[in-house]
Amino acid sequence: MPKIILLTGASGAGKDTLLKKARVYFRNHPKIHFIKRVITRKPGEFEENYYMEDSAFELLKESGFFISWWNAHGLKYGIPRREIDHLKRGETAIVSISREKVSDFETRFKDQVVVINVTASREVIEKRLKKRKRENQLQIITRLKRRDIPVTARHLIPFDNNREIDISSKAFIKLLKKNLPKGA
Questions:
Q1: Are residues 96 and 15 in contact, defined by beta-carbon separation less than 8 angstroms?
Q2: Residue 86: half-sphere exposure toward Cβ, Cα within 13 Å
């Protein structure tokens, strides 16, 4: 059974930026797979996802295409089942998901799931949301209200992402390495 590392956290906590740095670091590692989400929004500067229109997303959702899916901030997100199902024993999937969808993976993969919850201060998150220029002020306020939603997981690791990206990404990569299967 593969190992699953789930990345959760509030909008603006820096998940996609950390993932982008980790993808570069592990780009030639044959046993680490960064799973792309399907989102009903075209990818931003720091995201790597598949874009899909709402109607196509709904059809695929109804057909069981997604291992996990959710709605957030007027968008639909999903993790393609095939991206996870093709993994073999000794391989690791790293995927960014909603904090509320951890149980979808824990139910199926049991103790093979580790959840890294990326956090940042309200001030840092607000600054990042404004910088990416994807949300208006009301949307930013809505996202900030969701910042403190708790994460429930069997194996939960908090990750403070308040630091500069170079320092934070090195710490994140070190944390990922520590949580890879032996010999990976």
A1: yes
A2: 8
d(CA 115, CA 91): 16
Domains present along the chain, CATH in parentheses: 3-173 (3.40.50.300)
Residue with the two structure tokens 């956290």? 9
pTM for the full predicted model: 0.89
The model's confidence at residue 71, banded by pLDDT at 50, 70 and 90, is: very high
Phi, then psi, of 47 in degrees rounded to 5: -95, 155
Structure tokens at 133: 């220029």
| CA torsion angle 85 38 78 11 (round to 10) | 130
Per residue in 10-57, pLDDT (tens digit) is 988 999 899 999 999 999 999 999 999 999 987 766 667 889 999 999
Find all residues with CB under 8 Å of 85, minimum gap 6, and list them: 67
Q: Token pair of 31, please?
A: 């046993």
- Residue of 85, 94, 115, 133 lying closest to 16 (CA atoms): 94
Give residue 47's pLDDT. 66
- Looking up tokens 């403190």 gives 148
